[in-house]
Design brief:
The complex is a heterodimer. Chain A is α/β, with parallel strands linked by helices. Helices cover 38% and strands 25% of the residues of chain A. Chain B is an all-alpha fold. Chain B has nine helices and no strands. Chain B has helices at 2-20, 24-58, 62-77, 80-91, 99-125, 128-136, 141-171, 183-194, 198-226. The longest helix of chain B has 35 residues, at 24-58. Chain B starts with a helix and ends in a 6-residue tail after the last helix. The chains are: A alpha/beta, B mainly alpha. At the A-B interface, helix 2, strand 6, helix 3 and helix 5 of A face helix 6 and helix 7 of B.
Chain lengths: 240, 232
Amino acid sequence: MIKVKNLHKKFGDLTVLDGIDEHISPGEVVVVIGPSGSGKSTFLRCLNLLEEATEGEIYVDDQQINAPKVNVNEVRQKMGMVFQQFNLFPHLTIMDNITLAPVLLKKMTKQEAVKKGQELLERVNLSEKADAYPAQLSGGQQQRVAIARALAMNPEIMLFDEPTSALDPEMVGEVLDVMKDLARSGMTMVIVTHEMGFAREVASRVLFIDQGQVMESGTPEEVFSNPKNERTKLFLSKVL
Amino acid sequence: MTGIQEWFTKFSDEFYKCFIREDRYKLLLDGIGVTIKISLLAVFIGILIGMLIAMCNLSKKKLPKIIGGIYTDVIRGTPSVTQLMIIYFVIFATVNLDKWIIAAIAFGINSGAYVSEIIRGGILSVNHGQVEAGRSLGLNGFQTMTRIVIPQAVKNIFPALCNEFIVLVKETAIVGYVGLMDIQKAGDFIKSATFLAFMPLIGTAVIYYVLIKILTLLLGRVEKALRKSDIR
């Protein structure tokens, strides 16, 4: 579904991604872990072209997406993204946050979008908040709305960029529950996170990225219980 | 007692001379019309130019940036009276347009430079995460701008924009320089005709004050409506 070949990303002289080759199949839940500054968020942001790769190729459904003349907006409609800082639109109600893109991009009529929005809000347990504004919600609630907003476009892939890092500890669980539910439903997911327990429970595969390279890749069992790479061992000894 | 009586008689006498005799209040009423007409059109032109120049200044391309930079620089670096006179007597010298329209264009051009900086600041004040969220949903740059960034920016810049409108209304008091009879010029005319200074000038001040007060109250209401989504 996603194929990444020899991906490099440089910010000026700083090399953040240093040759990543990766293949993500439909239905996989890939959890990306690694020390801060290792390039894991940049990797994720390259996948939906929020960052432009300096070198290398990225394919989604066999179409190269980082080529000239590709309609970036169409590519992004296949990929939902959830941000660390939620980034809900503060001037719109929760329902309008969810329906804005599908209606504007003519994926659905207003009525269809509202119906879908209600279903999604039910799924994230926030049906009663449809008419509230983001500022009236807690962080955990905002992040669940952000997930619903991304799902409203019926994406094939969901990308999560440290979705629980900005949350108060007691709100982490409610967001992870929504993500677990999503993983069980068969959604293809790429998740950058520091929640190791969650990674162990939900991931079908764990990627350990350090210094812009994939150092280790395997099932949670392999990576967490039996890491082969020295760096992985060092990292895990600090976070587990 | 007699002192107060005397003063009152003098006051009503001056009031009569300045505003009632020869229907002089009509001059002021017409003046109010001229001030309002010029202000409204100038605000409109100012916002249009302001948006255009803000886009130029925010652009990543070189040419629009240079044009925007020069525009803001020149307008902010010269007095508005000078600009008004240049536009009236030089640029529009041979163009057959109503005087007040030319004046409004001059004030609009002037205001545009200030409005552009306000708009630019407002757009930059919107968190970049908002743009990323919009783009990640598949909206294009224009849709993200018009549906996500600008509505939030408008709310942020509204107080500064109100301030600019108020300054603009008062700034129009210089249109007498190009022969237009606004509130200020009408007051001035009455002053010359009656050889009285206190009454016509204070009258002028009161009229401006009331106009601005009404404008402030109206804009305050709009701002309240804009703040609806801030309720916690």
